[in-house]
Amino acid sequence: KQEVTQIPAALSVPEGENLVLNCSFTDSAIYNLQWFRQDPGKGLTSLLLIQSSQREQTSGRLNASLDKSSGRSTLYIAASQPGDSATYLCAVTQGVSGGGADGLTFGKGTHLIIQP
Amino acid sequence: SAVISQKPSRDICQRGTSLTIQCQVDSQVTMMFWYRQQPGQSLTLIATANQGSEATYESGFVIDKFPISRPNLTFSTLTVSNMSPEDSSIYLCSVRRTGGRGTIYFGEGSWLTVV
Question: Which of A13, A62, B74, B106 yields a CA-CA distance of 20 to 30 A from B3?
Fold first, then answer.
C-alpha cells in the first residue's frame, strides 16, 4: 500500500527566505504527483502536477521536482511571502495499468508560516 | 481548471441522522472522487463515484455508511448515514477532467459537525 510522508510537519520562516518542502512515497510506480495548498477553512488548490515521466514543473515562484526512482519530490518556494502561509499537501496517483484511474494518496502536509 | 460546487458548505447534525452532500461540476468529467479529512488529519479517499454504476469503495469504507450516487457526468452525492461524532469531518468532492494531464481538482468541502 502506498504511503506518502512529508517533512517537516511544520515550518516557520521569515519573509523573503527560499524554502524547500519534502515529500517521499514508498511505491515508485506512480502515474503522477501533485502538490496542493490548503488554507484554513478552505478546500484544496492545485499548485503543480508532475507526470511520472517528468523531472520538474515550475509555476511562478514555485518549482516542484520529482525523482521517481528514489520516491521523492520537493517543492521549492522562492522569496517567500506572508501570503504563502498555508498547509502544503503532496499527493500521488498510483494508476491502474498506468492509466491513472485511482484517486490520490495524500501526505499529512507541511504547515507553513511566513513571518512578516 | 474545473469549477466544483458543494452543498452544504457547513452543517451541524444530530447524532443518528443522515446527511446528503451534493457535488456539481461545471463540465463533464471522467472521474469523481469523495474524500474525508478528519480534524488535524490529511485527506483519505472514501470512494470513486462511477457514473451509472455502484461506487468503488476504499478499504474501511462501506456503502451502507456512505452511499454514493452519480447519475450523470457532472453530478454526484455522498450520504453520511447514521452519523456519530466520529463522522465530524470535512468531506471533499474532487474530479479529474476528461483528457488533460490528469490534474485533480477539489471543491471547497462540506464541513460537518455531529453533536
Answer: A62
Q: Give me the total of CB pairs closer than 8 Å, taking one residue from chain A and one from chain B.
A: 62
| Phi then psi dihedrals of residue B66, to 5 deg | -130, 65
Distance (Å) from the C-alpha of residue B15 to the closest C-alpha of chain A?
23
Q: List CB contacts (< 8 A) between B58 and chain A.
A: 103
As separate numbers, helices (DSSP H) first and strands (DSSP E) second, chain A gives 0, 11
Contact A43 B109 (CB under 8 A): yes
Nearest CA in chain B to A5: B42
Going by their DSSP bridges, the two strands A72-77 and B75-80 should be labelled as unpaired
Contacts of B1 in chain A (CB under 8 A): 46
Instruction: Provide the residue count of chain B.
Output: 115
Q: CA angle, corner A102, sides to B106 and A94, nearest 5?
A: 110
Over residues A1-55, the pLDDT tens digits come to: 899 999 999 999 999 999 999 999 999 989 899 999 999 888 899 999 999 999 9
The three grid cell numbers given for residue B67, joined into one nine-digit string: 452511499
